[in-house]
Amino acid sequence: MIDRRWVGLAVLSLSLLLVVMDMTVLNVALPAISEDLRPDSVELLWMVDAYALVLSGLLVTVSALGDRWGRKRMLLTGFGVFGLASLAVLAADSPGEVIAVRALLGVGGAMIMPSTLSMIRTLFTDPAERARALGVWAATAALGAALGPIVAGVLLEHFGWHSAFLVNVPVMGVAIAAGLFLLPESRNPAPGRWDALATALSMAGMAALVFAVKNFGKHGLADPAALVACAVAAVTLGWFVARCLRRPDPLLEVRLFRNGPFSAGVVTALVTAIAMAAVLLLLAQWMQLVRGYSPLETGVRLLPAALAALIASPLAPALAARIGARAVLAGGLAVTGLGFLLLYLAPDPLGYWPIATALTLIGAGNGALAIASAVIMSGTPAAKAGSAAAIEETSYEVGGALGVAVLGSVAAAVYRGELAYGGVAGESLGGALDVARELGTAGETLAEQARAAFTESLTLTCGAGAALMLAGTLVVWLLTPRGLDLSSAQH
After folding, report:
1. What is the pTM of this model?
2. In angstroms, how far is CA 432 from the centroid of its own chain?
3. Residue range(s) defining the domain that contains residue 401
4. What is the pLDDT of residues 154-169, one digit of tens each?
């Protein structure tokens, strides 16, 4: 007889597959969107960040609502919102409208992502089985990362950039139909009274935090708007945490951070997302605009990271059972950092084979994320699964936004510093190549300098990513107990 839990996991993994594909699709489609809509550098950053900003701002609230309303209901509603937002891209013909579509996709993603994790926590009560299920879940994310660029590349070669988003629509329809019949409903049996003030504080605080980070990266540490936003974030999030600690039925169970392994899992998710978001975005642009690869070629050449993660993620729980969860968590971060370091140290001119080797190391190291999820969810009571899922997904999404904002801004500053041109050419590599084409033969020097400046910005950003991953390795090693055994974790 077929175990409905594993069939349910397949539905949950399908939804994750699509959300991850959507993230990677944008990386490949961004040059085509930029060529068509000509966004400035701020609009370009908002196109990338809008999804993560909205999602991270809503995760806590939506997870708490799912605990009360029903996680299956929240998940299926998220499928519907995600599909409708993907359909709305047909009407988008300006940077602002693309940003709005990405924001609506963030609303759908906020409903989907924590629901999948919390439902896995309730479907699989045995810690060893849960670790295997989360290994499948993480491997599905790797598969989405592999399929996204290739699907986007095929669509972009034959259709307009709008088509890269429309692929979501039929898949969401299938997910809704399957989820209605295969997924069980689950909720917190005693969620407590809804805290409207904490809801407002969490949304305002997260939005202010990421706004501050983005503006610090863009305008420097003395930017007045960023300083005000930082103060707002400190006050609202501090108030939110204090309120959650005082209440017996908090909107978010922040007391989970008192558990060292839980914190180690969150740190793993956070630092990985920060480094990966910026570097993969820059690599996708480098391959298309510097090396001249087509979108499809770019997708294929980014495959090593996803394929290595696809292999490593399901194997990570068994490896953790043999050598310990701490070794796999910290070791995964160290291997990922080694991949970034290899890109930083690669000889000039930068070629594809050092990148392929580095991507393989990065993907293999990302197998540790399966253990991070298992550590986070296995140490969490089923009633608090929504809070744990919200914290983990917030780490991924805020990390992604911070990566693009901070490391992306570092890359932009290095690019501008290396290029002896201002104006549109100094804003982005795509802008510089547009100017060079308009100048004809006289623009060849500009194009060559712009490509060299972008390559330099990529390698220096990889160096910063390596330093971050190695620092994360040390923190995770210190937080995780030596004898942590996932098979005997809390039910």
Report:
1. 0.79
2. 28
3. 4-192+249-488
4. 887 778 788 878 878 8
